[in-house]
Structure formats: structure tokens, C-alpha cells
């Protein structure tokens, strides 16, 4: 899907923002605090009912407002007939998602309009907590295979039940065996899906990294959450006494992670800030490209302050990659002159400027 019309109300400092995005490249410029990231946040909200900056709706809502509403018209690939998609969330907890006259649940919305976000917080993929990398892997698993969400839910349920039995001390061995079986069955299948996803992602990641960063070669490895030379069943048996003493499940798929090495060293310790930005960008772009390959559908890229941390040649390479990707992109920057010269005249491109929450269109 791509967005052909967007209307935003009740988000941050944005003042009744309404515009028709270009099908390919949208450059949104403005000074610090003008609301550029908030426009990307609104598109993310449209795709998932959530912000990528905060989990608390009250911070996203314009001060004094009760509801955030993003309304759009979206186009399926190859279609000329845009369909209405609207997402509303209210401070009282109500959430409404309507697409072409019917309500959607969270999973349906996530499949309808997948987006990839690149902003300052994306660095955490390299040096943040493992849960951020698990979310990254699971995003891919969710979009790659419809079975994934059931496996993920089944595993979470088994983990929760095990942990509550371990926490309250008096362990009923029979009940524990039931949940152990579920934990192993779901956990093993979930891990196989995660591993297959990363195996498919690595060639995309290496290809894009080579385009963006030439000589830097990063080894990306999946860690399943336990010593994979042993079965999950064996590991559970072995660690049971320690788990009973500590009151929670020690190792398993809930500890899965990704490891990035450069010349055998933890890449996060070795890369410069610009290099880190290009590595995490390559990861997100690879995820979008793999999604396109697997589903034959495009992803929308939201890229906040693309030029920051990068020199001109790398900005050029980045823009050339985006241009060749054929996907819809929303790119923000402070100074539009840093981004406008890299696009071919045939590319459907639109320039917008934000001034204190007011958006205007600019001439190319
Ligand atoms: N809940 C809110 N209600 C009203 N205004 C808000 C709210 N939260 C943030 N703001 C203001 O909205 C603006 C949003 O800034 P945003 O982060 O989108 O700016 P930006 O153009 O991306 O800036 P920068 O270039 O510094 O990253 C800021 O001026 C901020 O003070």
C-alpha cells in the first residue's frame, strides 16, 4: 500500500495538517521543533495505532486534546482506486480503526500498512537491550508467515504460566510438565521461524550494507536464547533446580538476540556514529526489501533527519538506494537543499515545508 492522501489532527504541534503525498519520495523540511518527526509519528500511528517515540498516548496528543485522528486514502499496488483508512485513539482508551467501511484489529492493520522507521532511536538495534532486537526479528517473522503470530502467542502463554508456577514456589510437577511441553513445542517452532527469517535477511543486509558502506563487512548472527547444541527440552531439565531457586525461566527463546561483529569484535564498540547509522539503516532497509520479496507488496519508509551524521557522498548513496527501491518514502531534514539534488526528474517527488506545525507544499 502507499498513501495518496493524509490528514492529521490532534498530534503534537501539528495544525490541521492535510496533504497529498507523492507516490515515491516525500521530503519534509523545517527547523528544529517545527513538527517534522511528528508527521512521521502520525504515519506510524496510522500503520499501528502507536507512536515510535513513546508508548504513552498523552504525550503524542496535542496538549489539551482528547483524541488523535489520522485519516488517509491508501492505494494497493497496481490499483488506481484509493481506499479510506482512518485510525483514532482517545485518551479514555477507545481505539477505532476503519478501512474501507469495516473495522480492523491490530494484526490486520499491521499487515495492511507495514512501515520501517529510521530515527535516532533506531541506533538501539545495535547497542540497546536484546528485547529491541527480538522485536526486530519478530516483525520479520510476523510478516513472513501467518503461522508466526500463533506460535509467538502460544510461547508467551507457556512462558507466563511457567514463570508464575516458579514464582509461587509450590510447584505442581504435573502442571509444570504440561507447560514445559507447550514451552518446548512452541519455543522450538518459534525459533525455527526466527532462524529462517534471519537466514533470508542476511543476504539482503549484506547487499545493502555494501551499497551504503562499501568496505565495512558486518557479520550478523542469530542467537536463539540458549545453547543451540542442546535441545530446549534438555536445557529445561538441566536448569530446573536453578529456576526453582530463582523463581523464573532462565534460558530459552525469551532470551533470543542478534549479534553483530566486525572483524571479530562487537560492532557497536567499533563503529563510528555515521557508520552505526548506515548499519542500522541497512538492517531496516533489508527488512523492507525482504518483505517486498516475500509478499510482493511494498513497505513505507519513514526516515527522520536523513542527512544527520552523514557526509555528502553517503547521503547521495542513501538517496540513490531509496530511489531504486520503488517504495514510498517520507524523509525529513532541516535544510531541503541537502536532499533535493539527488533525484531523477522522472521520480514522483514532493517537497513540503513545516513551520511551527503548519505544512505547506514547495515547488521542486
Ligand atoms: N503533546 C504536545 N502538544 C503540543 N506540542 C507538542 C507536544 N509534544 C511536543 N510538542 C511540540 O511539537 C513539536 C514537535 O517536534 P518534532 O519533534 O516533531 O520536531 P522536529 O521538526 O522533528 O524537530 P527536530 O528537527 O528538532 O528533530 C515541538 O516543538 C514540541 O515542543
Automatic annotation (TrEMBL):
Residues 3-341 form the RecF/RecN/SMC N-terminal domain. This is DNA replication and repair protein RecF. Keywords: ATP-binding, Cytoplasm, DNA damage, DNA repair, DNA replication, DNA-binding, Nucleotide-binding, SOS response. The RecF protein is involved in DNA metabolism; it is required for DNA replication and normal SOS inducibility. RecF binds preferentially to single-stranded, linear DNA. It also seems to bind ATP. The gene is recF. ATP binds at residues 30-37. InterPro entries: DNA-binding_RecF, DNA-binding_RecF_CS, P-loop_NTPase, RecF/RecN/SMC_N, RecF_2. One of its GO terms (molecular function) is single-stranded DNA binding.
Amino acid at each position: 500500500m502507499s498513501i495518496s492522501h493524509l490528514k492529521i489532527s490532534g498530534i503534537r504541534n501539528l495544525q490541521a495538517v492535510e496533504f497529498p503525498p507523492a507516490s515515491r519520495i516525500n521530503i519534509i523540511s523545517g527547523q528544529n521543533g517545527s513538527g517534522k518527526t511528528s508527521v512521521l509519528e502520525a504515519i506510524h500511528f496510522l500503520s499501528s495505532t502507536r507512536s515510535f517515540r513513546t508508548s504513552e498516548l498523552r504525550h503524542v496528543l496535542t496538549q489539551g486534546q482528547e483524541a488523535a485522528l489520522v485519516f488517509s486514502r491508501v492505494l494497493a499496488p497496481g490499483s488506481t482506486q484509493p481506499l479510506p483508512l482512518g485510525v483514532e485513539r482517545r485518551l479514555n482508551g477507545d481505539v477505532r480503526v476503519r478501512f474501507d467501511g469495516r473495522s480492523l484489529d491490530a494484526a490486520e492493520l499491521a499487515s495492511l500498512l507495514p512501515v520501517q522507521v529510521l530515527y535516532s532511536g533506531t541506533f538501539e538495534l545495535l547497542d540497546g537491550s536484546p528485547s529491541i532486537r527480538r522485536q526486530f526479528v519478530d516483525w520479520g517473522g510476523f510478516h513472513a508467515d501467518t503461522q508466526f503470530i500463533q506460535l509467538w502467542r502460544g510461547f508467551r502463554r507457556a512462558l507466563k504460566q511457567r514463570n508464575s508456577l516458579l514464582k509461587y514456589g509450590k510447584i505442581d510437577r504435573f502442571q509444570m510438565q504440561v507447560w514445559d511441553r507447550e514451552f518446548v513445542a512452541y519455543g522450538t517452532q518459534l525459533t525455527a521461524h526466527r532462524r529462517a527469517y534471519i537466514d533470508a535477511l542476511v543476504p539482503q543486509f549484506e547487499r545493502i550494507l555494501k551499497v551504503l558502506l562499501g568496505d565495512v563487512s558486518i557479520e550478523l548472527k542469530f542467537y536463539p536464547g540458549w545453547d543451540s547444541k542442546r535441545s530446549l527440552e534438555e536445557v529445561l531439565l538441566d536448569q530446573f533446580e536453578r529456576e526453582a531457586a530463582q523463581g523464573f525461566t532462565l534460558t530459552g527463546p525469551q532470551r533470543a538476540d542478534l549479534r553483530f561483529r566486525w572483524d571479530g569484535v562487537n560492532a557497536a564498540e567499533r563503529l563510528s556514529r555515521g557508520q552505526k547509522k548506515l548499519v542500522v539503516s541497512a538492517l531496516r532497509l533489508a527488512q523492507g526489501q525482504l518483505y517486498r520479496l516475500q509478499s510482493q507488496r511494498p513497505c513505507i519508509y519513514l526516515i527522520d533527519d536523513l542527512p544527520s551524521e552523514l557526509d555528502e557522498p553517503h547521503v547521495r548513496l542513501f538517496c540513490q538506494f531509496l530511489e531504486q527501491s520503488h517504495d514510498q518514502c517520507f524523509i525529513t531534514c532541516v535544510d531541503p537543499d541537502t536532499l533535493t539534488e539527488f533525484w531523477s526528474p522522472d521520480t514522483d517527488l514532493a517537497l513540503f515545508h513545516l513551520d511551527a506545525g503548519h505544512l505547506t507544499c514547495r515547488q521542486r
